[in-house]
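Title: Comparing notes on inverse folding

I've been comparing how different people in this forum approach sequence design from structure. To keep things fair, I'm posting one structure and asking everyone to reply with a full sequence. Here's the target:
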């Protein structure tokens, strides 16, 4: 009896020690342990090694998750109807869900590849290039692999933080295998957060405080506004998606001309910048532009120009002091070869308002009315496009809204200031939709685009696009890649 108790205690201690060892595994240790499995599986199945390792790190918390320790399940794959092996109950999205159990990590890695390869929901992923990890990351979320809204961004961050792409390149034969053994990993530890000092334009919160141009990871504050620091080439669409905000707002908050990836490392504000800086002046260093100063000080670019009596295109010379709070008496000395653009030379922004459009309609109607008395129109009448009186139906509706026509019964009478034409202006033909190209074709969703509009653009039905891209409804996101021809 005592021997039996002794054996039970020993078994418990062995299991406890194993558990402690598992909990001490770091992310670099996880990568070093399973990188060869990921490379081998990519060569066998086509699932990118970088994606596989990133999923394993996230799903298992770098090998320390309870599910992984108890079942060797590295990818959180649930039982499903096709699974006939061992199972385990685990609380995930719901209580006591059924998950697969594997004899080894190798079995888990292999089953993960087969799970993606043989499931029709994930078939479109294998049309992406093996080294296109961003398309794979967003595609996995689109196909429903995970319920977490930021799952693609998490995968991309892990891949880039730990340079997991190198294992994909090795598996594809684009990099020598010897580079794996030469890679040294360093622990990625978050920088200690500091609270901003109380005072003007500062908030006493838990956001990181940038010091002397060294910006920490994550969100920090400049001039009381939340911001992040991004590397050159970072996709602004992904930044906006990660922070759950609209891309056009991100572009506007940062005084950017477009949503192209930045050409250099820069601060990206997540809130509208202030009209004034947190200090009185900013000394301009060599090579610093007005936009650089606006980002460094958290001040709107137009207000920075206004406070310093500068026009668009003008850049200050190095050594000049720019006013951030108040207004300068004189404009600063400009840098050599700066592009001076005087106010009278600046073109006003194009007016796209409804009133401007209606003014154009009035001019067109007046032009046709005056031309009808001197130049006969030999074109055949088009009774289906215009009612009595010669004014097109669509034009009447627009003019009604503007208050430029009155209606009595079924007759439509233009006001006194509105000449009545005798013929309808020619209606321009709509531009034909682009003919689909031969072979597989993709479309990256742009701002304000809809699934219906994209389907019409490529002469496809909405149902076709939904089936090809595994869409459950009509919702699409900016930057989402859609299969539009195959």
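Reply #1:
Here's my take.
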């Amino acid at each position: 009896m005592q021997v039996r108790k002794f054996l039970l205690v020993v078994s418990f201690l062995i299991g406890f020690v194993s558990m402690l060892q598992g909990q001490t595994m770091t992310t670099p240790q996880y990568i070093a342990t399973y990188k060869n499995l990921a490379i081998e599986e990519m060569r066998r199945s086509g699932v990118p090694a970088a994606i596989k390792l990133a999923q394993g790190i996230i799903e298992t918390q770098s090998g320390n998750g309870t599910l992984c320790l108890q079942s060797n399940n590295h990818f959180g794959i649930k039982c499903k109807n096709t699974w006939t092996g061992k199972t385990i109950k685990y609380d995930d999205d719901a209580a006591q869900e059924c998950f697969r159990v594997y004899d080894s990590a190798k079995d888990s890695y292999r089953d993960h590849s087969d799970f993606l390869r043989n499931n029709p929901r994930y078939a479109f992923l294998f049309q992406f290039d093996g080294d296109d990890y961003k398309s794979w990351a967003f595609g996995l979320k689109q196909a429903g692999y995970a319920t977490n809204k930021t799952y693609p961004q998490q995968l991309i961050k892990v891949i880039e933080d730990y340079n997991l792409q190198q294992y994909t390149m090795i598996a594809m034969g684009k990099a020598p295998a010897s580079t794996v053994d030469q890679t040294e990993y360093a622990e990625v530890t978050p920088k200690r957060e500091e609270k901003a000092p109380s005072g003007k334009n500062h908030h006493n919160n838990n956001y990181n405080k940038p010091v002397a141009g060294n910006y920490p990871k994550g969100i920090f504050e400049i001039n009381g506004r939340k911001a992040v620091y991004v590397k050159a080439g970072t996709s602004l669409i992904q930044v906006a998606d990660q922070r759950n905000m609209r891309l056009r707002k991100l572009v506007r908050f940062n005084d950017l001309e477009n949503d192209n990836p930045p050409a250099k490392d820069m601060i990206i504000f997540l809130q509208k910048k202030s009209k004034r800086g947190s200090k009185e002046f900013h000394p301009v260093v060599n090579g610093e532009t007005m936009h650089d100063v606006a980002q460094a000080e958290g001040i709107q670019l137009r207000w920075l120009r206004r406070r310093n009596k500068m026009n668009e295109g003008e850049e200050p010379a190095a050594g000049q002091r720019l006013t951030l709070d108040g207004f300068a008496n004189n404009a600063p000395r400009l840098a050599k070869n700066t592009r001076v653009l005087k106010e009278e030379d600046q073109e006003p922004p194009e007016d796209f308002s409804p009133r401007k459009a209606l003014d154009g309609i009035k001019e067109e109607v007046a032009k046709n009315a005056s031309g009808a008395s001197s130049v006969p129109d030999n074109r055949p009448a088009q009774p289906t496009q215009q009612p009595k009186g010669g004014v097109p139906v669509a034009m009447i509706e627009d003019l009604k809204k503007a208050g430029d026509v009155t209606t009595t019964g079924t007759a439509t009478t233009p006001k006194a200031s509105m000449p009545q034409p005798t013929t309808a202006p020619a209606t321009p033909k709509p531009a034909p939709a682009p003919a689909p190209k031969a072979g597989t074709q993709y479309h990256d969703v742009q701002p304000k685009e809809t699934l219906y509009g994209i389907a019409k653009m490529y002469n496809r039905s909405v149902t076709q696009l939904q089936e090809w891209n595994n869409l459950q409804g009509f919702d699409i996101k900016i930057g989402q890649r859609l299969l539009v021809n195959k």
